[in-house]
Amino acid sequence: MSESTDTRARPANPLAARVHGPVRIVGAGLLGSSVGHALSARGIDVILDDSSPSQLRLAIDYGAGRAARSDDAPALVVVAVPPDVTADVVERELAMYPDAVVTDVASVKLEPLRTLRERGIDLTHYIGSHPMAGRERGGAISARADIFVGRPWVVCRDEETSAADLALVEALALDVGATPIEMTPEDHDRSVALVSHVPQLVASLLAGRFLDAQDASLRLAGQGVRDTTRIAASAPELWVQILGANAEPVVDVLDALAVDLSAVADALRAPEAPGSRRAVADTIRRGNDGVERLPGKHGQNRRFDQFVVMVDDTPGQLGRLFGDFGELEVNVEDLRLEHSPGAQFGLAEVSVDPTALRRAVEGLQERGWKIASTTND
């Protein structure tokens, strides 16, 4: 797998060059602990705090940071708590550390900002932000230093934000490997409703249909349905807060989606009726066009070719496969592995640059690998 080596665009340690003092992280769950791991790995002094003593001790034991001391004077505070208490914690941290820049990483930006403004809080040193990263499992035990790498980190500045404060939050994003993107809170919330919050609901609704399905039906599940429902394993408690805080934009997308679903259902109720087949085809084609708009690797709009390799379900086979890619000087842009129930092999769907497809397929076949299919099949 290749990574960007453009050190001109991404300095080696931008936050350390700007921060004069420790970084305080409030909330030692998945995101807070992950930020702590990433910054600690770069030699930055990280203070952890959490309302749960056991969660705090666990995050410290895993190396995400240290416990607070009475003489700490943080230059940057990162609030990583659930959305329903974000405004309260931001208000407290601004009062405790008036010289520090305070940011939060809540997945909803407008509601906490409105609450703080209604309370009359001085927000000169507050900048809302949101890393577009996470995992289905939460808590300090699931935290990883690399979950932000290559991911967008939205920064919501306003007219009161100083250039120095903005640079500090953007340096935080750069230091953990993310790409800072400036947006207004309103644009952010509308955007995440479409690309994050509604997909969570769609995945959960589809996975909920499995409860009444026969076991024989579920044994047919392949990678497509697993990809579609992967995020359905997310924590209900957190998502109730997120969806409630961003309800209006989410409802707008859901209403539009409901119209689309109703139109497809009507077409399939009478599949032989004039226009029905076209309606279904247009739905699939529109999805094709939408997927093409999604940024690819490293945020690029490049498209890759895929082929499927049959991999024996024995130790060392994936290592051998990647070793052969290395010998062929073919870079693997993406990889998905699927196992069929009862089969003694897996199917590795590999994405490569189109110019490398033929070299990869022919080279692997010469080395004894079985190619199940390619993009051109």
TrEMBL record:
Taking every annotated instance into account, which residue ranges of this chain make up the domain Prephenate/arogenate dehydrogenase? Answer: 21-298
Which Gene3D superfamilies does the protein's record reference? Answer: 6-phosphogluconate dehydrogenase C-terminal like domain, NAD(P)-binding Rossmann-like Domain
Q: What class of enzyme is it?
A: oxidoreductase
Molecular-function GO terms, alphabetical: NAD+ binding; prephenate dehydrogenase (NAD+) activity; prephenate dehydrogenase (NADP+) activity
Q: Which InterPro entries match?
A: 6-PGluconate_DH-like_C_sf (IPR008927), ACT-like_dom_sf (IPR045865), ACT_dom (IPR002912), NAD(P)-bd_dom_sf (IPR036291), PDH_C (IPR046825), PDH_N (IPR046826), Preph/Arog_dehydrog (IPR050812), Prephen_DH (IPR003099)
Q: Name one GO biological process term.
A: tyrosine biosynthetic process
ACT domain sequence ranges: 306-377
Enzyme Commission designation: 1.3.1.12
Q: Which UniProt keywords apply?
A: Amino-acid biosynthesis, Aromatic amino acid biosynthesis, NAD, Oxidoreductase, Tyrosine biosynthesis
Alphabetized Pfam families for the sequence: PDH_C, PDH_N
Q: Which SUPFAM superfamilies match?
A: 6-phosphogluconate dehydrogenase C-terminal domain-like (SSF48179), ACT-like (SSF55021), NAD(P)-binding Rossmann-fold domains (SSF51735)
Question: What metabolic or biological pathway is this protein involved in?
Answer: Amino-acid biosynthesis; L-tyrosine biosynthesis; (4-hydroxyphenyl)pyruvate from prephenate (NAD(+) route): step 1/1
Reactions mediated catalytically = prephenate + NAD(+) = 3-(4-hydroxyphenyl)pyruvate + CO2 + NADH
Give the family from UniProt: Belongs to the prephenate/arogenate dehydrogenase family.
This protein's name: Prephenate dehydrogenase
The organism encoding this protein is Microbacterium pygmaeum
